[in-house]
Amino acid sequence: MKAIIPVAGIGTRLRPHTHTQPKVLLNVAGKPIIAHIMDQVVTTKIDQVVFIVGYLGEMFELWARERYSHLNLEFVEQPQALGLGHAVNLGLKDDDQEVMIILGDTIFDVNLREILDSPCSTLGVHEVEDARRFGVVMLQNGQIVDLIEKSSDPPSNLAIVGLYFIKNGSLLKECIKEIIRNNITTKGEYQITDALRLLVQKGEKITTFPVQGWYDCGAPETLLDSNRHLLSRQASPGVNVAQYQQRNIIVPPVFIAPTAQIENSIIGPYATIGEEVRIEGCIIQDSIISDKAQVANALLRRSIIGREASISGAFKKLNISDKSEISFD
User: What is the pLDDT of residue 327?
Assistant: First the structure.
């Protein structure tokens, strides 16, 4: 079975971090955003993954091929950001049957194996208070009868959250081609919601399934919120506490990579510490410290520190990117 995972987004709201790496490779709760998705994908019957890439696509491809070399991986470039419908069309073939479409920048708390056993096409939905930013579905007897994309007056509060299991991939491709041919766009982009609406009109039965755990990683504050939620859900603390407890105070939940070096510090709660990080004389809470960063004599809360960044003597809230260096001596 094929999965299509768009990962072409630039991630402008996560700058400066996304100046040097794709958004989906940012660390949250101990591993890249996309790894939370892929580590569940590999437990299913999905054996082919088509990534729709764009910005820093070569960096992403190197990472994916190294980590998931046992899968049949394909990388298709989306040269222009023309919408999710356009991106999915690039990954579909004319003879596709079942296909799973997963947005690559959002982490979901669902059982993919159960979804893939559905007897008909089905979409993940989440009830929201303000649905104006989302595509929504309208249901009748448990079946989708209409879909509306980003309406100023949405007829439903059941938002489509980025998980789509389609039984008839070739018909979906036909529908996307039709909306592109007729230039049916929302805010200048070809939306998959419009193609799915056409799919329903052509007689495809589509149901929904609830997505309770839905972790947005599109901005610094939501990335940190998702880090908190995911650390809280982990069955294990993500760290051998005894390894660090002698000269530090560790307050779970935390994730600390085994190669991190920590001295005379208080770590946690809700801290993610990456590989080869060095920390000395710090209090770090509710923050993400990326690989090979160095932090000394600092108090950090609600902060994101990029790879190989260096912080010394800071009692601030920070959001700095890879290889930066800041000193408050």
Answer: 67
